[in-house]
Amino acid sequence: MLEIKNLNASINNREILKGLNISIKPGELHAIMGPNGSGKSTLANVLSGKEGYKISGELNYLGKSLNEISIDERAQKGIFLAFQYPTEIPGVNTSNFLRTSLNKVRKAQGKKEIDALSFLKLVKEKSDELGMDEKMLTRQLNVGFSGGEKKKNEILQMKILDPSLIILDETDSGLDIDALKIVADGVNSARDKKKSFLVITHYQRLLNFIKPDFVHVLADGKIVKSGTKELAMELEKTGYKGIN
Amino acid sequence: MSKQNTNIPQDYKYGFTTDIDNIKAPKGLSEETIKFISKIKKEPKWMLDWRLKAFNRLKVSKEPNWQKPKYPKINYQDLYYYSAPKSMKDKPKSLDEVDPKLIETYNKLGIPLNEQKKLSGVAVDAVFDSVSVATTFKDELTKKGIIFCPISEAIQKHPDLVKKYLGSVIPISDHYFATLNSAVFTDGSFVYIPPNTRCPMELSTYFRINAAETGQFERTLIIADKGSYVSYLEGCTAPMRDENQLHAANVELIALDDAEIKYSTVQNWYPGDKDGVGGIYNFVTKRGACRGKNSKISWTQVETGSAITWKYPSCILQGDNSVGEFYSIAITNNHQKADTGTKMIHLGKNTKSKIISKGISAGKADNTYRGLVDIGRKASNSRNYTQCDSLLMGNKCGAHTVPYIKNKNSTSTIEHEATTSKINEDQLFYCNQRGLNQEEAVSLIVNGFCKDVLQQLPMEFAVEAQKLVGISLEGSVG
């Protein structure tokens, strides 16, 4: 699914990622943990194609290089980033936005645009699964949403767009325990053999609810240790300092 | 004939020219020109006298120069003041007699005039350079006593109404361009809604400039009698040329007791090319009088075209409890300039006004909101709310807000809110990450920014306007 080899990324001449390697197979869920400033969000941005970074190394997705592929094309090819801070877009209806987005993805896959009725049905089904009030979709995109609502909205979009590679960037930050459970349930229900997940988190807490196949520790722009979920438990005890 | 400008991206899809034989007035501004126009329009003497009075006033009037966008001196002797397709000389009696080239032009603009194809629920008056080509749904409106016709026809057929109201909101002596228009106006629409009548459809005029070196001076007069309602929309386009063309229109609205007029504009005159060559000078005077008690006038404008837009659709709130509204979107890209806003003059008691202005600047454009709220001594318990938001794209454009606020009545209140923001990188990234490309993302975000104004447009036109917002900003980011 995703093959990252010797990835270096810098912004404004400051090196952030320094030779990062990861390989994720279909169906796997990898967690990346690391202290503040270790390059976690940069990794999420670089994978989604955000501009402004100077990049070297290999980034292969579904066997093809992602170099030269724009953000929107990556999204259409099934890369989804659940944002740490989903941005507010005033005046834009959440439901219309989601439908526009879904139709862009469908079009790229050679499918017909979804009609209004089927879309409503799909939204109802997915928001029910998440135990969400679909009325949220009649509001302006993320405007006045609580932290929890914003994150739930990200997970709902993920479920509706049905991407192949899902990057969760600190989705657990700012969530109370109930919202955390809803988000985790959403992720768990979306897991299948074809999808891969890259879960970026600062705390081990989320991994009590989402069981990773692999855990990597990111420090100073590199993976310094990899293991299974026991590694996360260990980190919880010793802290990131214990790893170095 | 000036050459067609070929050095432009094809994003202005209305830039074509219709090749048609014209009758023109002698070049230049003179008494002869005015007599020519009056004669060819078969006007009564009182109308010619009115024009000549304006012309005499013009001789002692000076062009204003306080606005922000400056322009090279206009040589008024180098313009044609009347241009009409030859085939329109002997007024065609029905659409079958109208030159097919003209019908085709309007088809290309998306305004079919044929009986079979005409827009459902919208009556259209199509004005081509200096004449009205056709007016649809006339018979149906006549049954209700509604008059919707070219103003040149109204001058002949309804002289009492025209005499009573023409120039009653914008006097001949108002200012240079209004005076110029009064002297040389050629065509435009006339609307009269009888008492207690709700106009059953949208009325719409589509203005098209075609001929080169020609100014368009249209005049629109709308009267809503007691207890009536009308919604009116104007649209405008012009060919792409590398000269600047002048469009100086006067629009007067009169609302009597309990009447309501909703006036919407989607202005898409040719804006000039990306280096600022060519484009229309859109110097327009629009003013509405809420003359009766409980009357209401609402202006909605979407201004995306023109090299320079310079206009302030205004409301004079004379009647007690009358309401004035102004909703505006002004988009300027490349080298376009806009200085636009409104004037709300509160004279009656308990009068209310609301101003919502959204200015968007991109490229090297400059966008100014200029507005006056004036609450008179006798306008007790009056209220104004103003909200001006500016959105900047890139770092070479400008946005300015210039509010003039006068309150002479201690029981009245005025609120003014203003914001200026840049298009947000995070918003663009978010949209891109959901599969929208840069242009789609910009269009979505800007449409969201303009939503409060867009939702004021009649439904038939809101979708078109949304698309226009996106198209006007193509290539402005990234």
Describe, in short, the structure shown.
The complex is a heterodimer of chains A (244) and B (478). With 244 residues, chain A is an alpha/beta fold.
Can you walk me through this structure?
The complex is a heterodimer of chains A (244) and B (478). Chain A is an alpha/beta fold and 244 residues long. Chain A has a domain at 2-89 and 162-242: Rossmann fold, CATH 3.40.50. Chain A is 34% helix and 26% strand. Chain A contains seven helices and ten strands. By secondary structure, chain B is an alpha/beta fold. Chain B has helices at 31-40, 45-59, 100-108, 138-143, 151-157, 159-165, 176-184, 425-433, 438-449, 451-454, 459-472, and strands at 22-24, 83-85, 122-128, 131-135, 147-150, 189-193, 202-208, 219-224, 229-237, 244-247, 250-255, 260-267, 279-290, 296-303, 308-311, 314-317, 323-332, 337-340, 343-346, 352-361, 366-375, 383-392, 398-407, 413-422. A ten-stranded mixed sheet of chain B has the order 4-3-7-9-12-14-17-20-22-24. A six-stranded parallel beta barrel of chain B has the order 13-15-18-21-19-16. The interface between A and B is medium-sized, with 28 and 22 residues.
Q: What structural category characterises the helix and strand content of chain A?
A: alpha/beta
User: Separation of termini of chain B?
Assistant: 38 Å
Tell me the number of helical segments of chain B per DSSP (H or I, 4 or more residues long). 11
The named CATH superfamily of one domain in chain A: P-loop containing nucleotide triphosphate hydrolases
CATH arch. level architecture of one domain in chain A: 3-Layer(aba) Sandwich
Radius of gyration from the alpha-carbon trace of chain B, in angstroms: 21 Å
Segments of chain B where pLDDT lies below 50 for 5+ residues? 1-10
Q: Output the CATH class name of one domain in chain A.
A: Alpha Beta
Largest sheet of chain A: 6 strands, mixed
User: Which structural class fits the helix and strand makeup of chain B?
Assistant: alpha/beta
How many β strands of chain A by DSSP?
10
Mean pLDDT of chain A: 91
Strand line-up of the largest beta sheet of chain A: 6-7-8-3-9-10
CATH fold-level label of one domain in chain A: Rossmann fold
DSSP strand content of chain A: 25-35%
- The string of secondary-structure elements of chain A, in order, is EEEHEEHEHHHEHEEEH
Could you say which overall geometry of chain B the principal axes of the C-alpha atoms support?
globular
Q: How much is the radius of gyration of chain A in Å?
A: 18 Å
Report the major sheet of chain B.
10 strands, mixed
Number of helices of chain A: 7
- Strand segment count of chain B: 24
